[in-house]
């Protein structure tokens, strides 16, 4: 089915490059389609390889951002839902943050 669709759309060749993470994990593949039969040129292969490297960087960055977001959410939930009174204060004495237990215990909303 995929081959039929490719041929029907004038695509006669495809080259694929794995997208590999910095620690060697397979993240996916990137493909280049051509309307000409034959081997890819050295330039085409280089573009495909660099595209896969850039894709790996982007994917890993997105994964790291998501991991950080989840970690921050977990920390915030722990902090906010603790039964202990927790506060963060600047050196000048101004409050940066207080948790729900602190506000309830001291009558703030």
UniProtKB/TrEMBL annotation:
> Per the database entry, which stretches of residues form a coiled coil?
54-88
The family database entries (Gene3D superfamilies) matched by this protein are listed as: 3.30.450.40, PAS domain
Supply the alphabetized keyword list: Coiled coil
Q: Which residues form the PAS domain?
A: 71-109
Entry protein name: PAS domain-containing protein
The lineage is: unclassified sequences, metagenomes, ecological metagenomes
């Amino acid at each position: 089915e995929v081959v039929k669709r490719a041929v029907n759309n004038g695509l006669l060749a495809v080259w694929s490059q794995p997208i590999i993470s910095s620690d060697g994990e397979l993240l996916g593949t990137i493909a280049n389609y051509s309307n000409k039969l034959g081997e890819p040129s050295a330039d085409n292969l280089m573009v495909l390889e660099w595209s896969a490297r850039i894709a790996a960087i982007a994917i890993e960055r997105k994964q790291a951002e998501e991991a950080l977001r989840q970690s921050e959410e977990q920390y915030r939930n722990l902090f906010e839902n603790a039964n202990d009174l927790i506060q963060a204060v600047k050196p000048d004495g101004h409050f940066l943050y207080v948790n729900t237990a602190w506000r309830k215990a001291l009558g703030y909303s």
